[in-house]
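Quick illustration, no need to memorize.
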Amino acid sequence: MPLPTLKPRLVLIEDDLGRIEHFARWLTGSEFVLVTARSGGQALGLLRHGAQGMAGLMLDHDLSNAPLTAADATLSTSDLMPLIQRTVPRCVPVLIHSHSISKPKAMERTLQQVGFSVTRVRFALLQSAPALFSRWLDDVRDAWESVQP
């Protein structure tokens, strides 16, 4: 019996419900399954369980809007960088969509230095120019197809 085909997952680390809903709408009808972590703790758990099936990673920086624990209130995506570097394959494209002023540049630099393909576009620009998100999805598709047997 053949193994079931793994649907490609897009992992979204984002605490803003409105943005999560936008990404979900943009992906309606696509081949991707959206997996969301709304807090730093959820993101840690998700990343610790590995990246099997992860085709793309979308990152916000500040994750304090939806804390589930006291520790969540202090966690940001900057705190996740070492875990991302250990658990996510370098072939997985990353989209940084944060509105933070300085942190996204540092996140981009950190990930690029270890071999990730990173696109950094503020969420407001993605909203006004959806073709930017579509182009990133094309990169995700290409990367996913290149590693599938």
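Residues 3 and 149 are 12 Å apart (CA to CA).
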